[in-house]
Amino acid sequence: MSEELKVYAPPADFAAQAHVSGMAAYEALCKEAETDYEGYWGRLAKELISWKTPFTKVLNEAEAPFFKWFEDGTLNASYNCLDRNVERGLGDKTAIIFEADGGEVTKVSYSELLAKTCQIANGLKSLGIKKGDRVMIYIAMSVDGVAAMQACARIGATHSVVFGGFSAQSLRDRIEDTGAKAIITADCQVRGGKQLPLKAIVDEALGLGGCDSIQKVLVVKRGDAKCAMTAGRDQWMDDLVSGLPTTCEPEWVEAEHPLFLLYTSGSTGKPKGVQHSTGGYLLHAALTTKWTFDLKADDVFWCTADIGWVTGHTYITYGPLALGGTEIVFEGVPTYPDAGRFWKMIQDHKVSIFYTAPTAIRSLIKAAEANDAVHPKSYDLSSLRLLGSVGEPINPAAWEWYHQHVGGGRCPIVDTFWQTETGGHMITPLPGATPLVPGSCTLPFPGIQFAVVDEVGNDLPWGKGGILVCKKPWPSMIRTIWGDPERFKKSYYPEDFKGKYYLAGDGAIRDEKTGYFTITGRIDDVLNVSGHRMGTMEIESALVSCTELVAEAAVVGRPDDTTGEAICAFVVLKRPRPTGDEAKAIAKQLRDHVGKEIGPIAKPKDIRFGDNLPKTRSGKIMRRLLRSLAKGEAITQDTSTLENPAILDQLGENN
Ligand code: 6R9
C-alpha cells in the first residue's frame, strides 16, 4: 500500500513562512502535549484567548465523560472576536467581505461588525433575553447571521442555528427541544437568483405547535416581497435596533457556559442537540484556524460552508474573527450565474485560503470539463496559497484536480477530518509541515489522541482497519446532548470501551508505513450526502409518517460520483406494489413528503417498491443486503437467515 502512495512535500517557501514549519515542529508540539497534556492546552489557552478572569485549572475529569475545561476562567466569545481586534488597532480592517447572490459586495470592518453586534445584543436585552436563554437563528448566509450569533454570545444567550434548507417540521422540533425564547430570521433568502421564503417557514413551524417558549420573532429584511407579521410577536430587526447604542458591555461567562447548540443526526431517533462550551471551543476554533489554515494578517480567507453547519460556526463566525482575519461571506450558490462563480470570486477578492467540500469540487469538475469558460484555468487564481477540504472523504482524483487546476500545483491541500461534536479539526495536515497523500487526512492535530481500535478498544496495528476513537478529552469536545446526558454517554462513551474512549462513529485505517489515517466511512446508520449528515432512521420515519401510503420503509446509502453517497429508499406500500408511471408518481409524492418533513437535502434519490423487505426470521431488516441491491451488486452474502429470499429479485429490479 505504501509503495503506491504519491507524496506531496510542503513547498519550501510555504514551510518557511508557516506558523508550524516542518515535521520537527509538529512532532515537538505532539511531544509537548504528551509530556504535559494540561500544560500544553493551558499554555495555548493563555496565548490565544483573552480571559476576563484567568483560569487556574485546565481540565477537570471528576465527572467524566462530562469533562470541564478551564472551568474557573471567565471570558466572552464576542469580546475575543471583535473588541479585542479593535483594541489591537484593527478597527478599520475588513472583517467580512460579503458577496450577495447577485454579486453586490459589501465590506464590513471590525468596528462596524462590533457596532452591529452590540446593537443586536442591546435589542435582545431589551426583549428580556439574558444569559442562559436560547435563541434560534434561521437565516441565510449574511453579515446579519454572523452578527446575530456574535450578539447572542455577547449577552451569554446560547444560539442554535438551523440551516435554511430545513423544513418547518425540523425547525419546530429544534425549537421545542431547545425551549428557545426568540427566533432571528429573515423575510427570505436569495439563492440562484430566486427569493425563497424563510419567515413563512418560521410561521408554519410555530403553527405546528409545541413552540410556546417563543416570545419573539425578529425579522431581518432581505427581499422585497410582502411578509406577514404577527402583531406583538414579530418585529423587524431594523425597527428593534435602530437608535440603540452601538456599545454593549459583554456578559462575562464561565468557560463551560454553553456557547451554542447545533443539531446533528445520529443513528437513532431524533437529531441531537450537540452542546458546545465557550472557552474550550473558542480556543480550538482559533488554534486550528491558525495552524491548519496558517492564517496571517493579510490573508483573505474563504470557507464556503453555511453558518447552519458546524463548519460555518467554527470557520466563519468564530475562528477567523478570533484571529483578526479577513473573510468572505457568500450568500449564493456555486453554480449561479454559472459554475465559474467560486473561481471568479477567488479572482475578484484575491482569496488566499479556500476551504470547501469534496462534493462541490466534484460537481465543479464536471461543469469545468464540459465548458472551458467555467474551468478554473479561465480565471486568475494566483492569489491562492492554501486549499482545504471538509465534510467527507476526498477521493484522490478530485484531490489531484483541486491541487492542479485550482491550486496551480503550488498550494497544499488540508484534508480536515472532524465532526459537529469535535468543534474543530481533529485529524488534518498542517500545511507547512505534513507531507500530503491524496485521500488521507494524514495525522492528528497536535494534542489530539485519535487511535484505531477493535470492538473492545484494543489498539490495532497500522494497516488494519477498525474503529476511530479519541483516547483523551480535548478542549472543544461536545459537552453533552442538550437535555439528554444519558444519550450523550451512550452515543459517545459506550461501555464497549469501558466508557473511556470517545467514539467518533467512523471507521479508519492507518497506513502501514506512515501511520497516516484514512477515514473509511461511518460505522453507524448515518449517511453523508454532499457532506450533509443524515440518519437513515430519520428518513425512514419521515417516509412512514406518510401514513396513507407507506407501510414500511428502509433507507440505505449507495456510493455516488458527485454527492459521495446517495439516499436509496426501499418502500412497501399499503397498496399493491406499483410499477411504471404509477411508481414514478408515488416516488415523487414520497420525495416531496420527505422534503416537507426534514428538508430537500433528505429527499431519496432512488425509491424502490417491494411487496416486502428482506428480513431475518426474527423480523430484522437485512440492511447489508439492501446496500448491495442499492449498489446494483450481485448478492454474494450469506442469505441463509433470510425469511423471504425471493424478495431480493423483486427489489433488485430497477422500478
Ligand atoms: C465537519 C463536519 C462529520 C462526519 C464525520 C465523517 C465525515 C468530515 C471528513 C469526513 C472523511 C474528512 N467527514 N470530514 N470524512 N474525511 N475530511 O463535516 O461535521 O457534519 O458533523 O460530519 O463527516 O464521517 O463523522 P459533520
Automatic annotation (TrEMBL):
EC class (word) = ligase
Q: Does the keyword Nucleotide-binding apply?
A: yes
Enumerate the InterPro entries for this protein.
Answer: Ac_CoA_lig, ACAS_N, AMP-bd_C, AMP-bd_C_sf, AMP-binding_CS, AMP-dep_synth/lig_dom, ANL_N_sf
User: What does its PTM field state?
Assistant: Acetylated. Deacetylation by the SIR2-homolog deacetylase activates the enzyme.
**Residue sites binding Mg(2+) per the record:** 544, 550
Specify the AMP-binding enzyme C-terminal domain's residue ranges: 538-620
Query: Which residue numbers delimit the Acetyl-coenzyme A synthetase N-terminal domain?
Result: 26-81
* Catalytic activity from the UniProt record: acetate + ATP + CoA = acetyl-CoA + AMP + diphosphate
Q: What does this protein do?
A: Catalyzes the conversion of acetate into acetyl-CoA (AcCoA), an essential intermediate at the junction of anabolic and catabolic pathways. AcsA undergoes a two-step reaction. In the first half reaction, AcsA combines acetate with ATP to form acetyl-adenylate (AcAMP) intermediate. In the second half reaction, it can then transfer the acetyl group from AcAMP to the sulfhydryl group of CoA, forming the product AcCoA.
According to its UniProt record, which protein family does this protein belong to? Belongs to the ATP-dependent AMP-binding enzyme family.
Spell out the protein name for this chain. Answer: Acetyl-coenzyme A synthetase
Species annotation: Ideonella alba
Species lineage: Bacteria, Pseudomonadati, Pseudomonadota, Betaproteobacteria, Burkholderiales
